[in-house]
Amino acid sequence: MLKHISRQRHHFHHHKFLSSKPHFEDNDPPFTPLSKPQKPTKTLQKPHPQNPQENHPLTSTLPFDFQYSYSETNPCVKPIGYRETPKFSPFGPGRIDRKWTGTVAPVRETVDVGKVEEERLRVVGEGLSEDEVEELVEKYRHSDCSRQINLGKGGVTHNMIDDIHNHWKKAEAVRIKCLGVPTLDMDNICYHLEDKSGGKIIYRHINILLLYRGRNYDPKNRPVVPLMLWKPYPPIYPKLIKNVADGLTFEETKEMRNRGLNSPPLIKLTRNGVYANVVEKVREAFEAQEVLRLDCAHVGMSDCKRIAVKLRDLVPCVPILYKDEQIVIWRGKKTMETAPGPC
């Protein structure tokens, strides 16, 4: 009887506990009731003011044709084909008022060279004294300088000009470290850096440059440099290595290639190295030898081709073979040695 009464009390309390609403349901997340998801309310957004550059092409007053790379392209060598149609501009659709031709975006109007040079001299201002140059060199020439731009195998690229002006907002000079194929012709790099940026190189040591912005440089009125949104595909140029070298027969060309491959290498080039003295070494070696081999192992075939093109124009010489990352060059005949390079 007592057991029956205790079971009824236990059943009553248990039923009451389950039926009653627990007092901790608001504080304990696992026991909170699931609420139905609320429908998002439609809010009227005010229209944002339109950017004038979205409807109108960007106008830039830079007085030169826009290219991906200025130092690594030769305007005298015309491409024989394109990997993409010229309608795909690297600046994006409707972002610039210059038409992309597949290699460049040329200036529409004729450039007044006199006015451009006058404005450049005004911005550069009076020349720096020796003490001022030494102060800037000591400030920016070290490897831990925060105002540094690395120049790689692309050379002086279009977007690099914008990077230079961004550094010039807070610094009088920018340190440029050059590596790879462009270092074969440092004079060309210096020319395009000064020509495209409007600055002046005040320090040059092998592959390290300091580019000064000028006394009268105004960061608020800096030139507008439209950025390339992607790297355009390079066009197709004529074949560099011919089956039969100019001035030789087929058998003579074959004999020259075999002699070059079996000769010791003149120099071993490393990837992203400094090649500032390679041209002089090749010229000196050609005084005693007719065929030379350059060991470009670990450099890459694309860089091998660029190196061969540079040597052809700078030495000058005739590349007759690149195989297994080895470049074989021939000094050519006397008429070729004195022939002027491309414009």
What does this structure look like?
This protein has 343 residues and is an alpha+beta fold. The protein has two domains: 156 residues, YhbY-like (Translation Initiation Factor IF3); 88 residues, Translation Initiation Factor IF3 (2-Layer Sandwich). Helices cover 31% and strands 13% of the residues. The protein contains ten helices and ten strands. The longest helix is centred in the N-terminal third of the chain and has 18 residues. It starts with a helix and ends in a 6-residue tail after the last helix. The N terminus is likely disordered. This is RNA-binding CRS1 / YhbY (CRM) domain-containing protein. One of its GO terms (cellular component) is ribonucleoprotein complex. Keywords: mRNA processing, mRNA splicing, Repeat, Ribonucleoprotein, RNA-binding, Transit peptide. GO terms for molecular function: RNA binding.
